[in-house]
Amino acid sequence: MSETWLENWPEGLAGLSFEQQGLRLSWAEVHALGRLNGIHGHCFQRSSPEALEGLTARLDDALQRFPQGAFVRLGSRSPKDTLASMLMRNRAFNGAQAVHLLTNGSERIAFELRRCLRAAYTPWIFLRRWCDIPPESEFRCFIREGQRVGVSQYHHDSHFEGLDAKETLECLRERILTFFPLLTARSHVTTAVFDLVIPRGGDGPVTLLELNPYGAPTDPCLFSWSAQDMDDTLRVRTATGEIARIRLSH
Ligand SMILES: Nc1ncnc2c1ncn2[C@@H]1O[C@H](COP(=O)(O)OP(=O)(O)OP(=O)(O)O)[C@@H](O)[C@H]1O
Ligand SMILES: [Mg+2]
Fold first, then answer.
1. Is 88 touching ligand 1 by the criterion CB < 6 Å?
2. Which residue, by CA, sits nearest to atom 28 of ligand 1?
3. CA separation for the pair 237, 65 (Å, rounded)
4. Interior CA angle at 92 toward 87 and 96, to 5°?
5. What does the alpha-carbon distance between residue 115 and residue 44 come to, in Å, rounded to a whole number?
6. Ligand 1 closest atom vs CA 131
7. Is the CB of 164 under 6 A from ligand 1?
8. Does the CB atom of residue 155 touch ligand 1 within 6 A?
9. How many Å apart are CA 105 and CA 119, to the nearest integer?
10. 250 pLDDT more than 90
11. By the 8 A CB rule, do 37 and 106 touch?
């Protein structure tokens, strides 16, 4: 399946991201999750309760590694479209919570599980070390054929106080320019959208959050998918709702 999925990352690239534990699902587990999730539930076979009990026990076991809890997702994407995920911030401390997050009427999970069924591919669940991420520190970096073509604030409808200040943008630019060669050297893909956490004020390392396919339906944030719009600028939202940009390349 897609090379951006977490199970397909090379070790070096995973080293730039959160500590994580992957669990490959069995077919019985895929069907049990899909059925319980309810969306397009008829596409999944009824399975015995043991499938979910076994999965919950496996998740319980894996979660021991994460006493602060873990962000729960599939290798492809998270169930962030449900109320449960919003309320729990998609964080689980035990297997039952992880299963609950993945089966609470998520269109995203239903879509992914059905896609895996069609491709006869058993997907993975990933538990990722929980880390409080201030929303203004999330950025989306667009890379096409090994070239960086733009970086945007991730929560692009919001203005974050001071993010558009000249010194802040200069500091972000330096951090992006330093991280970029490391990212491309370790990445197995040359065209993708890389989500990054760049801590405010220059403290703490830049962390790779995840990879997304380049192009729709991935959100282009403050860019558009038109090739002409990709001009290797860093873009953030100003207080008046406009887009501030600075050139990244020297
Ligand atoms: N380890 C983590 N700890 C805390 N919060 C996290 C963690 N990983 C991700 N998040 C938060 O959850 C959001 C969604 O996570 P992620 O990007 O992995 O899932 P996704 O479903 O692929 O999202 P998208 O649709 O944006 O590509 C992130 O933007 C971040 O705010
Ligand atoms: Mg994603």
1. no
2. 209
3. 38
4. 105
5. 12
6. 3
7. no
8. no
9. 22
10. no
11. yes
Cα–Cα nearest to 214, from 141, 153, 105 = 141
Which residues does residue 20 pair with via DSSP β-bridges, in sequence order?
128
Q: Residue 244 in contact with residue 169, Cβ under 8 Å? A: yes
pTM: 0.95
H or E element: which one contains 244?
A: strand 243-247
* Angle made by CA atoms 106, 108, 112, in degrees to the nearest 5: 120
Q: What is the SS3 assignment for 195?
A: strand
* Domain boundaries defined on the chain: 19-129, 135-247
Task: Give the mutation target among 4, 6, 20, 78 for probing the ligand 1 site: most ligand atoms within 8 A of CB.
Answer: 78
Q: What is the pLDDT of residue 53?
A: 97
78 ligand 1 Cβ < 6 A = yes
Residue 23 structure tokens: 């669990």
d(CA 83, CA 104): 8
Q: What is the pLDDT of residues 151-188, one digit of tens each?
A: 999 999 999 999 999 999 999 999 999 999 999 999 99
**Mean pLDDT in the chain?**
96
